[in-house]
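User: My collaborator sent over this chain with a note saying "see what the structure looks like." That's all I know about it. Can you take a look?
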Amino acid sequence: MIVIKGAGDLASGVAVRLAHCGFPIVMTDLSHPTSIRRTVCFSEAILKGTFTVEDVTSEFAKTIYDIVPIHARRHIAVLADPKADCIKALHPDVVIDAILAKRNLGTKITDAPVVIALGPGFTVGVDCHAVIETMRGHDLGRIILNGSAEPNTGIPGNISGFTTERVLRAPKDGTFAEIRHIGDLVEKGESVASVDGETIVATISGVIRGLLPTGTPVHSGMKSGDIDPRPIQSHCYTVSDKARAIGGGVLEAILMLQRRNADV
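Assistant: Without extra context I'll predict from the sequence alone. Here is the result:
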């Protein structure tokens, strides 16, 4: 069994690749998820009961006792368990920290025989057995068996020449409200959302790839949306190239580390 901490878009892309290989998967997230790319996030199962990304279906597990029947249906089980307390009871073979918090929020190298972390904030041999590089570029998806991933730059990955411009952020503390929706094509300067009446406008033209749902409490500067300058609406409903690459690295790391453990 694999426990994945986090059920956002990158975590979900990893889960899709692992599910295709037949691994039973449990994912954990907040009881009120704040995933931006909601159309490709298994965290939506917590709110909707079930949710499908591409050809893989997830189900909300109210307790750990719901996991076995969910796995019998070959679905992913999703728990509202932000601290991943289920790890203590489930004794998984693999734990993957896919929260992408840029720091370790509690993952321990002793959580499972194989512990893998995504991105910066973890050191191999201290926090985990392997780290997967998440920064876009030549090393995306690379397995790190010594040291740490590239440090967080605070600058989103470059897509078609755009970095920080792609991200929509809350202008103040308050309650988020959608004006446009994921999959909509927008022009630069067009109103996309608002926070307590203060409008958020598109900073570039493209397709809305991610957006918080109406009613989400936000704080000033909080990431609230994502515009892809490539106006391809189908990209909003499939796993991203980045998530697939990271998922491939995770799969390779699991097999490598399990074989290493078997040889000891």
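A starting point for your reply to your collaborator: The two ends are 21 Å apart (CA to CA).
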